[in-house]
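Attaching the record inline, Q. Sequence:
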Amino acid sequence: MRQLVLNEPSRTEPPAVREVLCAEDGIEPWESVDWEASPDWEFDTAIHDDPADLVENWQTSVSLARGNAERAYTEGGLDTRSKTTRHGETHNLRWILTHMIEEYARHNGHVDLSRESIDGLTGE
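Structure, as predicted:
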């Protein structure tokens, strides 16, 4: 589970911030994946990946996303529009950052449900 929790957000941040907001190329390992042949690649491969490599990928993704978000904010604030579309729409920086918060909240919820199924304890 730990591997998946680190792998999926590493894939989510670059497209949302780097590729959509700033129209920059994707990063590895995500860029060379054949997503049509393996749509669940990040799930299928995470279990075999070294956790240290996954942490490094996640830290790289976060660092790049923060740098791009900071530049966009400096250029035009939270209303800065994305330079490319996602699902046929452009989005502003505010929407993209909110989307990232939602993604992390969703994954934290998955981890909490998994933990609850193991130890039976529930949160407040």
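The radius of gyration is 16 Å. The chain has one domain: 2-119.

More tomorrow.
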